Amino acid sequence: MGLEACLFDLDGVLVDTAKYHYLAWKQLANTLGLDFTEKENEQLKGISRVESLRKILNWAGMEMPQEKQDELASLKNGWYVEMISGMTQNEVLPGALKLLDELKANHIKIGLGSASKNAKLILDNTGLKPYFDALVDGNIVSKSKPDPEVFLRGAELLGVSPEYCVVFEDASAGVEAAIKGNMKAIGIGNEEELGEAQLVVEDLTAIDLRTIQNLF
Ligand code: B16
Ligand code: MG
């Protein structure tokens, strides 16, 4: 037995929503009188909304009650949703559509494993939704990556044993989650950060069905 399913992270793998997260978090940080850099934003990739805010407050040595934190997180989300509402298929990352088409044509199951609570909106706007046989997002999971829950739920929904799944991830926490879940991982980004993955590539243009099957 070999490859049966591919599970995709969303932000940083299929679409570049990190730039919108950055702009919205920056806007929020500025209202709190804080600065927020792209380097700090890097550390929020794959991390849930509430945890991201907690980190930003920690970096600034700020504390506030949970109620206030929830208020700020939803303020940021409002701005973020406004930004992603204008997304189109042009914002799908290089190589993604070609690979998804090839997987579909070869009856490989396709699942989403994202921490985002806005994943469905993004998939709708970019026209990616019809490719997916199962969607697992931040509304479904209770434990964040590196916990393997998001991918294990995906495999379960697809009816595939984890060992026949390959995960595509741009965040080291996501690669760790895939490995903990007994799946193979392809890292999208740099070797230094994602070295634990079986294969690391710059983007999906470097991947076709044969490359994935060769991991087995
Ligand atoms: P939301 P992924 C993650 O998406 C993003 O990388 C991360 O920056 C974001 O905080 C998280 O989703 C939650 O997003 O605020 O939309 O629920 O990489 O897991 O697809
Ligand atoms: Mg990601």
From TrEMBL:
Similarity-based family: Belongs to the HAD-like hydrolase superfamily. CbbY/CbbZ/Gph/YieH family.
Lineage of producing organism: Bacteria, Pseudomonadati, Bacteroidota, Sphingobacteriia, Sphingobacteriales
Site (Important for catalytic activity and assists the phosphoryl transfer reaction to Asp8 by balancing charge and orienting the reacting groups): 114, 145
Pfam families on file: Hydrolase (PF00702)
InterPro entries: B-phosphoglucomutase_hydrolase, Beta-PGM, HAD-like_sf, HAD-like_SPP, HAD-SF_hydro_IA, HAD_sf, PGP-like_dom2
Any single GO BP term: carbohydrate metabolic process
Active site per UniProt: 9 (nucleophile), 11 (proton donor/acceptor)
Listed name of the protein: Beta-phosphoglucomutase
NCBIfam families found in the cross-reference section: bPGM (TIGR01990), HAD-SF-IA-v3 (TIGR01509), PGMB-YQAB-SF (TIGR02009)
Gene3D superfamilies, alphabetized: HAD superfamily/HAD-like, Putative phosphatase, domain 2
GO molecular-function terms, A-Z: beta-phosphoglucomutase activity; magnesium ion binding; sugar-phosphatase activity
Keyword list, A-Z: Magnesium, Metal-binding
Cofactor note: Binds 2 magnesium ions per subunit.
